[in-house]
Amino acid sequence: MDGRAARPAGGASGSRVTQPDREREGKQTVTSTNQDDIRARNVRTVRTFYRLQEAMDFERWLELWAEEAGQDIPYAPEGFPTTVRGKANLEGLYRPLFEGFAEIHIQDLRVDPLNDPNRVLVRWHTHGPLKNGGLYENDLVGVFEFGEDGRITHLTEYLNPQKVNIHP
């Protein structure tokens, strides 16, 4: 040991905690709790997103998106946009996709909240018999971003474009 006494948080050894220290500590606790609440809300939204996909409840699924929401699909297959901006354009892309599925099954769903409470990393497998008799199977990764109101503001989705056999 170097002979120095350990100092308690908030002041010198033996000093008492002052009111500003208490207020600062209280704000940290509130901020942490608030971030935890936001993170938990966004994780619930992601789980609802996939539950509604499986239920094929397009209208309620679309309500999860903010009006100004966007999506990036960096490895979009031929016939798909790499960028979609605005809820109306998301509806235009996804409504025919939903309608092309006989069923949608989300498997191996892994939802990982990130340090930023408004971002959630998700990994999943989609298994979907198609109305045309085909079968869609793909492993995907997505990063969801959320606004203050808890709606999805952005989704970046990574998938294997060679496995996409359904088109808008």
UniProtKB/TrEMBL annotation:
> What is the recorded name of this protein?
SnoaL-like domain-containing protein
Q: Where is this region: Disordered?
A: 1-36
Task: Name the residue ranges with Low complexity bias.
Answer: 1-16
Organism, by scientific name, is Streptomyces hoynatensis
Q: Where is the SnoaL-like domain?
A: 46-154
